[in-house]
């Protein structure tokens, strides 16, 4: 459909023009297909994802912007609201709360915000959700963040995770 | 072209070259339209398409949340030309308004046809010359109610009906009292102006046509059923029986083959 193409082209021009505006997001359109985009986003500071760069894949439907784009993580990420295997993201604005006023750029910003503030109550990664809650219920904030970082980086042995979840039930 | 100043607010493209584009298509505004509560601006086509998407999901919907601020809105204001505007009520997306019958639909469509359909049948100037206008028209109340409901697409129009009736009554009262020897043309002008002024706050751009139709109905001396019959015949929309004499009457769904114009379905581009 022509409207989606025209709108994506406007976004493309905006991205080119505003490249320096948001150093945390780098949006790139596929060379041959304007409906396929990838983004590199920086892990938000003061979170365990800080220092990491995460790749997202956008697949834009023809009805865009009346329909939301499909977005998933290509980079493996341990996060309560991201499916560990598929990279699927559970985020309301990508589903029911979508508004045509969102852009690919602002969707990236929303995903960065989700990385900083997980929603453990609607997990796609149940282990991660449980663990996140376990860690943050059981421990003081700074200790929890460190432990959470270890979880995410895959440094925490499996047995330790299981113990943590058990402990949280007892606490 | 690089803009050195980085935008600090979150609304994207606020620094774009063409000022503030439509938030939906990101292009310049085509047929500027506003939502009635928050007054955020969109292209007419863009926002109507969005309301249709919303209507499909939440059926039946009478409101839409603004894509920008999420406030609830009930109509789209468009076609503002400095003095008047048009309104697209979101209920129009669903055909399930209880009060809005086929008859209302037909009348609304009449207002989008060329004026003067009945000119050669109904002699308006004789109506004024003969002084026939001094007689009460007992169908007027129902006719007013129906046409106002159709035009405004609102059920509750009684206040406006009685306002217009009051204006007409006082005009007739005055004319009767003074036994004014004015020319019928002056009377006609006065009448039309009075009704226009009374109706304009509610009908805006549709006022003039409404007054024409009202005059035509009064001059015809027909009741509503007969008037509709003639009207439909003239437009070539005639069917065996498409309107009932009673305004409250239900029309038979299966007998109608009226080639309706579907004024509001102009962009049903569901194809990809």
Automatic annotation (TrEMBL), chain A:
The entry's keywords: ATP-binding, Ligase, Nucleotide-binding, Peroxisome biogenesis, Transferase, Ubl conjugation pathway
Biological process terms in GO annotation: peroxisome organization
An example molecular function term from Gene Ontology annotations: ATP binding
The enzyme's E.C. designation: 2.3.2.23
Coiled coil region boundaries: none
Record-annotated UBC core domain positions: 3-157
Xref: InterPro entries: Ub_conjugating_enzyme, UBC, UBQ-conjugating_AS, UBQ-conjugating_enzyme/RWD
Pfam family of the protein (one): UQ_con
SUPFAM superfamilies: UBC-like (SSF54495)
Catalytic residues, chain numbering: 90
Annotated PANTHER family: UBIQUITIN-CONJUGATING ENZYME E2
Family assignment from sequence similarity: Belongs to the ubiquitin-conjugating enzyme family.
Protein name from the UniProt record: E2 ubiquitin-conjugating enzyme
Source organism of the structure: Turnera subulata
From TrEMBL, chain B:
Residue span, RING-type domain: 22-70
Listed GO MF terms: zinc ion binding
Record has Transcription as a keyword: no
InterPro entries recorded: Znf_C3HC4_RING-type, Znf_RING, Znf_RING/FYVE/PHD, Znf_RING_CS
Domain of life: Eukaryota
Coiled-coil boundaries: none
Keyword check for Transmembrane: no
Keywords: Metal-binding, Zinc, Zinc-finger
Protein name per UniProt: RING-type domain-containing protein
Originating species: Turnera subulata
């Amino acid at each position: 459909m022509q409207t989606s193409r025209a709108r994506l082209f406007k976004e493309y021009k905006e991205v080119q023009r505003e490249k320096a505006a948001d150093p945390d997001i780098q949006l790139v359109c596929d060379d041959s297909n304007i409906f396929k985009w990838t983004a590199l986003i920086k892990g938000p500071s003061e979170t365990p994802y800080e220092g990491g760069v995460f790749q997202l894949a956008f697949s834009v439907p023809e009805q865009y912007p009346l329909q939301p784009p499909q977005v998933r993580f290509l980079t493996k990420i341990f996060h309560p609201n991201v499916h560990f295997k598929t990279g699927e993201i559970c985020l309301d604005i990508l589903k029911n709360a979508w508004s045509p006023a969102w852009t690919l750029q602002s969707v990236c910003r929303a995903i960065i915000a989700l990385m900083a503030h997980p929603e453990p109550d609607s997990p796609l990664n149940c282990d991660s959700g449980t663990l996140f809650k376990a860690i943050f219920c059981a421990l003081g904030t700074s200790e929890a963040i460190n432990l959470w970082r270890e979880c995410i980086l895959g440094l925490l042995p499996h047995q330790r995770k299981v113990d943590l979840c058990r402990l949280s039930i007892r606490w | 072209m690089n803009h050195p100043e980085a935008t600090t607010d979150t609304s994207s493209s606020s620094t774009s070259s063409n000022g503030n584009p439509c938030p939906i298509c990101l292009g310049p505004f085509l047929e500027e339209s506003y939502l009635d509560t928050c007054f955020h601006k969109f292209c007419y086509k863009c926002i109507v398409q969005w309301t249709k998407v919303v209507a499909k999901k939440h059926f039946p919907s009478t409101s839409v949340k603004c894509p920008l601020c999420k406030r609830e809105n009930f109509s789209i204001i468009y076609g503002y030309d400095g003095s008047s505007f048009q309104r697209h009520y979101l209920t129009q997306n669903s055909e399930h308004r209880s009060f809005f019958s086929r008859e209302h639909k037909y009348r609304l469509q009449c207002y989008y046809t060329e004026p003067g359909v009945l000119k050669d049948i109904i002699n308006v100037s004789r109506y004024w010359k003969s002084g026939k206008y001094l007689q009460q028209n007992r169908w007027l109340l129902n006719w007013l109610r129906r046409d106002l409901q159709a035009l405004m697409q609102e059920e509750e129009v009684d206040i406006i009906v009685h306002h217009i009736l009051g204006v007409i009554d006082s005009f007739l009262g005055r004319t009767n009292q003074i036994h004014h020897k004015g020319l019928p043309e002056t009377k006609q002008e006065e009448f039309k102006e009075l009704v226009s002024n009374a109706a304009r706050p509610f009908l805006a751009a549709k006022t003039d046509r409404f007054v024409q139709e009202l005059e035509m109905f009064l001059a015809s001396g027909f009741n509503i059923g007969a008037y509709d019959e003639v009207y439909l015949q003239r437009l070539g929309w005639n069917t065996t029986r498409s309107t009932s004499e009673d305004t409250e009457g239900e029309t038979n769904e299966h007998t109608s083959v009226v080639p309706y114009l579907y004024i509001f379905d102009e962009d049903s581009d569901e194809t990809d």
